[in-house]
């Protein structure tokens, strides 16, 4: 609904916005017509159906004061008005609904025969009062209500309070009511008997066409007749059958996902909107081929194919040339035509071929002739595309023609068809486009039975629509909307309309009974129901499985069965890729997986596990990894989601819990529980037990190679010193209760990180001769220098001290440190230090050493940045020597962006609050490292300016790239600075050969182009270097540079490209005698550009220039005038309009010396269906 001007901001916020508005602002005209303020109610009421199907009504009362004062029982009922779906409404007004208020209601007419019908709608109520000499809107309310037979009306008892507005009620009062019926979606079949189709992205154009094809029953029967199975490689016929079957027999909207997939499209292509007529042609061709050799063969020809004859007839000699061809649709001009008959008249209009356009008749020479087409036969299903879109050459873009264009329910085309017959047609479907040439939405109006009953099919929504509404809302042209102005007049606001018919489908009237004949059970293959039910069941199962999975939390479980013999630091491997093995979370051999419902608490998990374990259990929570696993008890009263995010559960028990089945750890189910032990017992009250601590025990041996194994996990109680730990270790190693008589070194691998040295494992070494008092963390939370404190989850490692120590012997701590330190890290190439339009130095190197694009480095956590760079250099230097100073490292702070941040140098000890000296420090910032290689050491580049410039060929394509370091203090130097180095003066490139003038039919204006080479016959090699300035990314020539131009003006802008090329003596001569023209060749709709220079006589005309430039291209080329357009910090070369085909001298009229050659469009998202 169009917003009216109003100074009341509050009322503006309550005003319902226009639902079908687009980016272009509406164009308004105001035509004022008075509402007759008479006592007759019928003369003071006016209504209209809006374009989107809503209804608006205006009801004026000259005065309500008399009725309030003298006739308190009276109420008024308005005339009936309709919404676009055909529902009928009226307004009920009670001047004294209560003793102090005016009540207003909206009522939907529902007959007793249709008592089950219901419609949800939003209704907006507005009241205007005469204040002074003006009408002002004072009240705005709205409601949502489901209208039905028992609940036909809804409104407000206290819409207007007498006490507040009584003084205005003796003057004209206007009530504006807007009814907005809700569109049915899931319930469309129940409401209308027809189903919608889900929009899977921007697939509305497919949906509107499929609905039309579905109601061609003859076509639907043919689709059903195509033999299909679930094993078909080409799924398109089956997918179309499934959609039609769903629309016919199901009560929910159909999906086109299977059909889109059968096209070979990915999800990105689902979100690219195409032209519905183009899609119709492609789908028709594809389906017609699939129907060959099946009972459906020939269906397309029978339904959609007509014949036309193109002819040329000479006026003065007896010669006629004609050609007969088939067609499946007719494209009718909308521009310059008022209705469908005007378009057909124009289609068969005779064109005279006279004068310069005479026809070359075989055997008669050039002759005056007439050219035209005539229809021989029209198809039973006539598809008419209205040419609503055209290319505007002045605006250089596609535009949509939205003016009014009339079409009719029934059309008689006999006058346009040569063959005798009854060529009358009835309208079945209107495919509507709402929007502009850039974006929009498709939907369709369809009369399935050609009985005057119309329905709107808008994706998954289907609703009834009035016959008049279907036509009027799709004709195009300006739309008139009513509003009240302050003088008591109704304003007709003429608004720009972007909704109009784009494709019309007619059925030959005398064949409608054949084409629309109802399908019987025999027309539907028996196997199709089985396939449909199977696919539906599969999809339902997938949905259920996904819903179930989403409702569960996956918990990783460990017990001693799983960690026994574990031979690495900590108790589990890491959940990352640094160590070259499968991550903990995906390695089924390193943990068991248990699913449980989200929202449950610790005691719920304990209860579930007790169903599988007969003995007492205790559950611990920890973080997987080599260190800092933070072992602690599971809180039985807290939620699992809160406690177990990125954490695991260890089950402490005295019995085996898991076994390996098919490579996965599963609960041992055959445990027989005693009657007194059915998984319901609880742990004894720990307050009465002696203090315990849960520890892991490992044993280390050396047999020429290091070997460490986890041998026990148990809670211990009596442990007073290290010697007690030695006893436990020996007992668990030998399963004997004997004292250990040898020499044992003990290591305590802590479950918590050492924050003083976070880059190493937290391992304490206790030599064979040392003994310390042991205390538990539960008893003594404070560290002491003469005591060893143990925490739950700590690991005690035993190592027998050898009498003879081999030279290559390493201790348990050294072995664990080696396992922890040796990692794999990814280093990927990132072209950070490059200039627009240039290949970076690193890119040139990696073209040779391609393995450098992605490196997997074996490195230690304690290695420095230089050692990391050295590994990169060792790989790259196999083909191109580089130094460490040329390598720069980066990391990505935000994985959702491409913003690379340099890692701090070695000299920078900290970066923010994080150190960055070692690989371990780097991994705290990022899991992957990126690198670039510079042509010079980074410190040299930082202190100076690195200048890029290129040697290019005659098409300004790169031949060789140069880099030069220029002192920042001397940056004011000129272009000559680039060649002041003797080494730089010897710029290498391919052998330059002198060109000759190309053959050209315009002999008096011969151009010169360096792109037409030929060896110089005299062997001359005199050449000159000329510098140019190009822009990025077009690579278009901005200007020729003088060696005295200041260098700073160009190198400070990354969008400028400095280049040079060699000029032969012949071209140098032409530069002095002819005009230079900078040419930019580009393909419209792509980023393909090419520049060159050509030379022409200064008297060449625009017409001759167009001919000269165009003839070099087989495809259609437009010669465009270009302009240099400054934009932000760059210069863009933009076409402004085509060069006119005139006799004007080009260089006199356009001295700018820039011209463009525009080749035909190329589209990235080409619409096509892949062949299987």
UniProtKB/TrEMBL annotation:
GO terms for biological process: protein deubiquitination; regulation of protein stability. Residues 1-28 are annotated as: Disordered. Residues 61-179 form the MATH domain. GO terms for molecular function: cysteine-type deubiquitinase activity. CDD domains: MATH. Residues 195-509 form the USP domain. It holds the Pfam family UCH. It comes from the Eukaryota. One of its GO terms (cellular component) is cytosol. InterPro entries: MATH/TRAF_dom, Papain-like_cys_pep_sf, Peptidase_C19, Peptidase_C19_UCH, TRAF-like, USP, USP_CS. This is Ubiquitinyl hydrolase 1.
